[in-house]
Fold this protein.
Amino acid sequence: MDILTSFDDFQSAALSAIGRAGSPEQLEAVRIEFLGQKNGRIRDLQKLVGQATGDQKPLVGKRFNEVRTAVTAELEARQQQLEASKSSSPVSDFDVTLPGDRPVFGRLHPISRTITEFRELMGRFGFTVVEGPELEDERHNFEALNIPEDHPARDPLDNFYVACASATLGGPVLLRSQTSTVQIRTMETTPPPVRIVSLGRVYRPDTIDATHSCMFHQMEGLMVDEHVTMAQLKTVLSLFARSFLGPDVEIRFRPSFFPFTEPSVEVDVKWGDHWMEIGGAGMVDPNVFKAVGYDPEKVSGFAFGLGIERFCMKHYGVDDIRRFYENDVRFLAQF
Ligand code: PHE
C-alpha cells in the first residue's frame, strides 16, 4: 500500500539522518526537518492519514503513531549519546583561549603569613603600615634615637657595618639593627598625630641558637598625639597579643631601659610554664621628639618593637628559630 510505503520511507530516512548527525545542533536540524510542527515532513504523513479511506484508517493511524514514536525515541537516544561524548571528549571541552589552571606550587612562609596577619590586626586598631630601608645611617639607627656615641649598642662588633658609600645616606652605613629607625623617618616627614607600624628585617651579629638569629623580623609601632599614655600602650599590646595568640594568653610588662623610651618595659608572654620575651616598649623619650622637631611639651607617645619570629614560634609551636631559615621543605610544607 502506497501510504504505508511512504511511512516506511519516512522512518528509514529519519533514522539514517539521525545516525549521521554528529552534534546536538545537527541533530536539532534533523528533528526540525522530520518532526517540526510547522513544516516537518511528518506533516505530509499526517495529510496521508487524512486521505485514508474508511477501513484503512485504523491501520494507517496505528502505523503513523508507531513511526512517530520510533523516530522520537531514536532522536532522544542519539541526543544522549552526543551529550555524553561531548562531556567526555577532552578535545571538544578544551578552550584554548581560556587562561590555564596554575598548579599549586609551594605556599606562604610562616613568617610571611605572620607579617600579613600582624598588618591586618594593627590595621584594625587604626595603625597605618609604613616601610623603611634596611640599609641605614647612624642618625636613624642611633643618634636621633638618643643612643650616644659611647653606648655599647653602637659597638662596631655588635653591628653589621657595610663598606659602601651611599648617595642618600650620610656617613657610615649599616644594616639596621632595629626597626625603630622607621619611627624617626616617619616623624621627620609627618607632623603629629602619628599612628604607624612598620614590619621588616633587622640584623645583628648574634651567636645563633634556638632563639637567636643574625637576621630576624620586628614590628615597630609608634603612636604620637597630644595625650598618649602608658595605659594605652599596655592596652594595645595586650589586645594585640590576645588577638594573635588567643584570649587566654598571659602577658606581662617588666621595667626596663631603652635610650629612646622613658619609662621603658620589656614585654613577655607565657609559653608553657615559662615567660618568653617578645619585645620592648615604652613612652617616647623627649630627646627623640626634639631630634625630629616635635615639641615634647605638646605631644606624648608610645613606641614598641616586637620580635615577629618569637610570636610565630609561640603561635605555631616551633621550638627553634633556625627552622625558619633552613628551608627544609618537610618543615615548610606543614604551614
Ligand atoms: N628597638 C628595640 C629593640 O630592638 C625595641 C623597642 C622599640 C623598645 C620601641 C622600645 C620602643 O630591642
In short: Residues 178, 180, 258, 261, 264, 279-282, 303-305 surround phenylalanine (CB under 6 Å). The mean pLDDT is 92.
